[in-house]
Every structure is written in structure tokens, then in C-alpha cells.
Amino acid sequence: MITSTKSRPAGAGLRYLLLLPLLVVLSACATTAGYEKMLNSWLGAQEIDLVRSWGPPVQSYELDGHKFIVYVSQRVVHYPGTEPTFHTTIRDGKAYTTAIGGSPPMTVGSSCTTTFEIAESKIISWSHQGDDCRARE
């Protein structure tokens, strides 16, 4: 029986492995609590200052003298996946190759919808929804 192993070139998957701790550290810095703290800093601010900072809202509507303005952020991240390692065994003159490990590519989407309530041109409350409503504390 002859056995050989063919793997990807040295270091090919290493760059993804090195990025993992960086992604963990960066994601640990941004939290929902940080986002809510940032939103709280807008309470009492003028609507015009919010629009100057955040840009035009994607939606606005009025109800009972109160105005509601909505902001939406969306992002898509593509993870390319990793190649498997191949193990080949030759038995009785036939070669058998098995793929070991590896991962398929993956695309992940996330979003955050934030609504500000405004009365007399001042921000009086906010709400948010989504899996990407995070900011650094």
C-alpha cells in the first residue's frame, strides 16, 4: 500500500487563520450597548444636526405632530472558504483520493434600521432593529 498526501501550498490558508483573531478583536469592540450610548447622545439634538451628520433618511413620516425619520444600513461580507487537504491511498493498483477538511465559501448579510422620533425639531427618542446595530464604546 502506498500513501501520499497532497495539500495546499504552505501558507495559503495561513492568511485566513491570521485574520480570525483580528476579526474577533474588532467585533468585540463594537457592541449594541455602544450603539445605544451613541444614540442616547443624540437625544435633545436638533433634527438638522442629525441629518447633517447621518445624511438624508431613507424614510420619514409624521403622526400626531411628531416626525419619525428612518435610517437603514446594510452590508454583505463574503468569506472565500478554504481548500481541503487531499489524501491518496493506492490499494490493489487503484488510487483512492479523499478530501479532508476545507470549508465552502459563505456570504453573510447584516443590517440595522434606526428610527428617530422628533418633536419641535428636537430628537426625543429612538429605536433600532437588526443584527448590525453596533458601535464602539
Walk me through the structure.
This protein is of the alpha+beta class and 137 residues long. The protein has one domain (2-136). 24% of the residues lie in helices and 47% in strands. It is built from three helices and nine strands; from the N terminus they run E-H-E-H-H-E-E-E-E-E-E-E. It has helices at 14-29, 32-40, 47-54; strands at residues 2-6, 30-31, 59-63, 66-79, 85-91, 94-100, 106-119, 122-129, 135-136. Strands 3-4-7-8 form a four-stranded antiparallel sheet, with no helix packed on it. A three-stranded antiparallel sheet has the order 1-5-6, with no helix packed on it. Strands 2-9 form a two-stranded antiparallel sheet. It is rod-shaped and about 85 Å long. Residues 1-12 have low confidence and may be disordered.
Keywords:
3-stranded antiparallel beta sheet; rod-shaped; disordered N terminus; 3 helices; 137 residues; 4-stranded antiparallel beta sheet; 24% helix
What proportion of the residues form beta strands (DSSP E)?
over 45%
Number of strands: 9
What is the alpha-carbon Rg in Å? 25 Å
- The figure for the number of domains is 1
Spatial strand sequence of the major β-sheet: 3-4-7-8
Mean pLDDT across all amino acids: 85
Q: Number of helix segments?
A: 3
For the record, give the distance between the C-alpha atoms at the N and C termini, rounded to a whole number. 60 Å
Structural class: alpha+beta
| Main sheet characteristics | 4 strands, antiparallel
Helix and strand string, N-terminal first?
EHEHHEEEEEEE
Question: Low-confidence parts lasting 5 or more residues at pLDDT below 50?
Answer: 1-12
- The 3D shape can be described as rod-shaped
Q: Percentage of helical residues? A: 10-25%
